[in-house]
Write a structure and sequence with these properties.
55 residues; alpha+beta; two-stranded antiparallel ribbon; elongated
Length: 55
């Protein structure tokens, strides 16, 4: 989908995951209200922040 279509979809109430493709198009996936998403980068940051460091 293009930017105009993306704006129309995101104007509807709800939770969405938006993926941007290399060609500039978007994929929008509706999510349930209680869904929690975490990216690989965020997971790695959390692990490095909260891991127990042995001295």
């Amino acid at each position: 989908m293009n930017v105009k279509e993306l704006i129309v979809v995101l104007s509807l109430p709800g939770h969405y995951e938006v993926i941007t493709l290399e060609n500039g198009e978007f994929i929008v996936t509706p999510l349930p209200p209680d869904a929690i998403l975490i990216s690989k980068e965020s997971h790695a940051d959390s692990v490095s922040h909260f891991c127990i460091k042995e001295d």
